[in-house]
Design a protein that fits this description.
Keywords (chains A, B): DNA-binding, Transcription, Transcription regulation
Radius of gyration of chain A: 22 Å
Oligomer: homodimer
Number of domains of chain A: 2
Number of helices of chain A: 7
Strand content of chain A: 25-35%
CATH architecture of the largest domain in chain A: 3-Layer(aba) Sandwich
Strand order of the largest sheet of chain A: 4-5-6-9-8-7
Order of helices and strands of chain A: HEHHEEHEHEEHEHEEE
GO molecular function, one term (chains A, B): DNA-binding transcription factor activity
InterPro entries (chains A, B): Bact_HTH_transcr_reg, Chorismate_lyase_/UTRA_dom_sf, Tscrpt_reg_HTH_GntR, UTRA, WH-like_DNA-bd_sf, WH_DNA-bd_sf
Protein name (chains A, B): Phosphonate metabolism transcriptional regulator PhnF
DNA sequence: TAGTGGTCTAGACCACTTC
DNA sequence: AAGTGGTCTAGACCACTAC
């Protein structure tokens, strides 16, 4: 089951093996899994390598360690997804809905002001401006405006933005997305939004502003979204930091 | 600087030492910090111990590792807080505002229905129901209703809920908070909320439902909040999961 | 007492980046 | 070629939990 000569790291192979057993129901929520020493003997690898695998699965929310007792399968497996940054497409699929896109506008504009600054585009640089209506199960869900540095994702075409921009950046461009900050606020629909989203004026809107970054902190995109308040709930999982109390 | 005979783990001492140097500005954003081998020789400890410290600081957002290049101080230090779960009190302080509480109601009620189920309170058990108006700089910010299992935090008094419930649970009860899931949606104020929060009927409200859990996944609390849309933005940082693509 | 996870050592070889 | 982080080993002692 573990191939020591595979190019895949051993700890990664162990992670996959453990996750598979959990997914198959072989180990259920709350079950104790084999101890680190047992894994170590089972696969003929050192305990530190097992620990690396287990540590990763703990921080991914699959496992829980308890000193002196053992390591256990975490409950609420469904909620694990809530902790990860997702694209609209992934988000809707995760909710069991069919994501769709209507492209309103796709152009490059000269960068200036705070948007250019956030995207670290020098004076005179260009950026993509993409306006889309995102739908779920063929009904409008959100209005989105995305900005990207042209330099960073040069060659982006209209076809590329009908699906997941994150998917494109990761799979086609081979970049690694690191994190994003998001600001959410409550608002009400004005005339323009109500028409585009098919809701009444004054109906609740959830406004989201997102700044995405690559793993090395290169700014990737800015997204302004307006989600229909009657169809969309933003769901997020947050961990308590070890360092919070230090302020 | 490093005390090998201290009860504090060595890796933790290194973490603190690195954070201090960053906070003091000795190492600035984007700077390369000493290599793992340099730390290892500097403190006369093994490289694996250094790695444990650095790994923790990377996942806390302080450092960034780049293969073949080195380890660097992360940019956007201010945004590090965004990734951690905070109480209302901590949240407001982080925004530079003075948190306050007006207690509307504090009682124990018999648990039943989905709330009892979520809090894992058996039939016939009791739970605390706490209604508070939370203020920032002496102006109403949110209306909150909190439910806690009486069994878990037995002996809670009215005085305890004027400040941070998280602080009380962690410092007084010695429990460790693990994580929470939160659902956010946009709504508009009705008569009751508009009166309590001092806003107009129909004004935007940000509704937040929070389920908190201890480290061992014991459900700690349920909180329903209604934040004033004109005063409050929810801000959150999210990391891209290694496991997202696997769905 | 036996077993668990927590911490730590003193090495090793690898792929990668920089020069 | 030299230096970096990534992976891995084969042990060790500790505090804690369960019995």
């Amino acid at each position: 089951m573990i191939d020591k000569h595979s190019p895949m790291p051993i700890y990664y192979q162990i992670e996959e093996a453990i996750k598979e057993r959990i997914d198959k129901g072989e180990w259920r929520e709350g079950d104790m899994i084999p101890s680190e020493r047992e894994f170590s003997e089972m696969y003929h690898i050192s305990r530190m390598t097992v620990r690396q695998a287990v540590t990763n699965l703990v921080s991914d929310g699959y496992l829980i360690r308890q000193i002196g007792r053992g390591t256990f399968v975490a409950r609420r497996k469904i909620q694990q997804k809530l902790f990860g940054l997702t694209s609209f497409t992934e988000d809707m699929k995760g909710r069991g809905m069919k994501p769709g896109t209507r492209l309103l506008d796709f152009r490059t504009v000269s960068a200036s002001g705070p948007i250019a600054e956030q995207l670290q585009i020098p004076d005179g640089g260009e950026m993509y401006e993409i306006k889309r209506v995102r739908s779920a199960d063929d009904l409008p869900m959100a209005l989105e405006i995305t900005y990207l540095s042209e330099d960073l994702v040069r060659g982006l075409t209209e076809e590329d933005v009908y699906g997941s921009l994150y998917g494109y950046v990761e799979k086609e461009l081979g970049m690694t997305i690191g994190y994003a900050t998001q600001e959410l606020e409550s608002s009400v629909a004005r005339e323009a939004e109500s028409r585009t989203l098919g809701i009444a004026e004054g109906a609740p809107l959830l406004l989201i502003k997102r700044f995405s970054y690559l793993e090395d902190e290169t700014p990737l995109e800015i997204v302004y979204s307006a989600y229909r308040g009657d169809r969309y709930k933003f769901v997020v999982g947050m961990h308590r930091n070890r360092t919070d109390s230090n302020g």
